[in-house]
Amino acid sequence: MDINELLTRGVAEVIVESELRQRLATGQVLRLKQGFDPTKPDMHIGHAVGLRKLRTFQEAGHQVVLIVGDWTAQIGDPSGRDETRPRLDAATVRKNAETYMEQFFRVVDRERTEVRWQSEWFGSFTLENALDLAGRFTLAQMLAHETFRRRYDEGAKLTILELMYPMLQGYDSVAISSDVEFGGTDQKFNNLAGRELMGQLGMRPQHVLLVPLIPGTDGRKMGKTFNNTVDITLSPFDMLGKIMSMSDEVLPLYFEVLTDMPLEELAEVRTGLAGGTASPRDLKMRLARDIVSQFHSPADATAAEESFVRQFVQRELPTDIPAHALAAPSGIIDLLVAAGMAASKGEARRLIDGGGVRVDGERVEGYSLTLAPGAGVVVQVGRRKFVRVV
Q: Phi and psi dihedrals of 316, rounded to 5?
């Protein structure tokens, strides 16, 4: 494995890069820390950026240590949060963790991963331990955290418990003797807390490898907060469709961090897009096939592409439209709700107002349309939701 590519491709920052290069050159097996708080059960392809980098290090012979934040999840990572998170109970955290790990191991090699739960060390933490930990960081250090500083300056609620979060995450590094901690660029402060704490305790401070945050379907940072994610549990068709809906600008970054495209070819893609000689649509389809293949299979990717082309390029209807049976005439509003195409009557009206509802290809212009049982018509909402009235 080329050390230069290992430390630059899909990497935003390495602390300290020169020292980590030297350690990698010796052939020493490093312990790579990746922590997660199971506050929610689903992962998206933004999470996969760091996981793919972890897998690359695994393939070079290094040891991944997955930290399940069953204690810190009950606080919730305050990074980027304008308010205190609600506390989670232990049962919810464990259930989320099980779902999360199933998705984690779609990318990272399970056989070469050591899984550790924070409760192994925090479960026996005493008040003396907690006070010692708190005494190793100053308020000034904590207020260097952008989120903490903003909330403090604005007079917003900022609990002592939240200030403990980076300290607890940092202690994880001590507990498992981390050599390198991985995270997104938004995790820099928390990762550096581990480095600081290890140095104070006479341990070799861990290195930090930060990966970029990728844009979501609306161009903002991909995250559940913005409802702009491509979840890795999506069906092949929906996953491919969401990637096809991305802006052309994401293509070079996505190819770099979410595929194994050779760097020479990646350079050609960048040049082609900048010069207008490459087809963004063709590249986007190639990207979508690659990502779907990773989380499903090549066969699923091919089937999803064929279905997408029929539906959106050739303007054919899908072959597997679900049926919705009517026992009596139904207004379009009631039908959309009953068929699960709208969550409420209010949403159904908004969909119609926005021009997003069609019956046999014709846009529905008002709320008065009534459909009869057995009409056989196809009702469509947006690009991907269809039912046939039977």
A: -90, 155
